[in-house]
Amino acid sequence: MLEDIASSRFGFWIVALVMVAVDSSFLLKPGKFVFSVSASNLVNIRIASPPFLIRNKELVCSLLSFPFQLFFISNVETSERTTGRETLKALSRLRRVSRQNTIFSILSVCGITLLVLGPLLAATRGIQTSILSVFPPFYFLALTASTILWRRRRKFGLSDRTVLKISAEIILCPILLVNISKRISLAQKLVLNTYRLALLSRSPRKTIAAIKENVQFYNEG
């Protein structure tokens, strides 16, 4: 089967798509959740029931859960001493960070468009033409993203070392540009309490109940 894929005119692009899918995934420790913040400070917490586990950690695919957008991590065990006002203040900061990510969302969409265009060109003009046509724009997008990220690193709260690491990854392998929002998200240091955040969701009672059910699933396992 692998030989058939390798010899196929679509083989290169199949591998590229698999790499992007795998790269978009990450593992969450028990008690941790990912969430996003809306413009009105409403919280959307991702709660899987039951979660898909690998070595007692939940497998999350950012392309499916939060495509081309920032997400943040919360923890049920984080100290609950923060007041509601402090939580709202933290969410406002995260919302501002999310707005800074708009340009990277656009670049990621351009990247996924090129990934779709690649196999189409391979089908009509051959694999070599598809690679020569798609990868120069990919490198341009990766360089553009790296430059913008460096200039906005303070607004994202990222260290120089973290930005250089992200830039090196997407320049050496430009197809990973599609997942740049995931990289920025996982580099965020602020971790809020999940139960506090649940109070700011659309259905606080249902959300808290789902969180408890998720935590209990780990405890029973």
Detailed description of the structure:
The chain is of the alpha+beta class and 221 residues long. The chain has one domain (2-211). The protein has eleven helices and seven strands. The strands form two sheets. It has a four-stranded mixed beta sheet with strand order 3-2-6-7. Strands 1-5-4 form a three-stranded antiparallel beta sheet. Helix 5 (102-125) runs antiparallel to helix 6 (127-151) and helix 6 (127-151) runs antiparallel to helix 8. The relative contact order is 0.19.
SSE topology:
Layout: H1 2-7, H2 11-23, E1 25-28, E2 32-37, E3 43-46, E4 53-54, E5 57-61, H3 62-65, E6 72-75, H4 84-100, H5 102-125, H6 127-151, H7 153-156, H8 160-172, H9 180-186, E7 192-193, H10 194-198, H11 204-220
Parallel strand pairs: 6-7
Antiparallel strand pairs: 1-5, 2-3, 2-6, 4-5
Helix pairs in contact: 5-6, 6-8
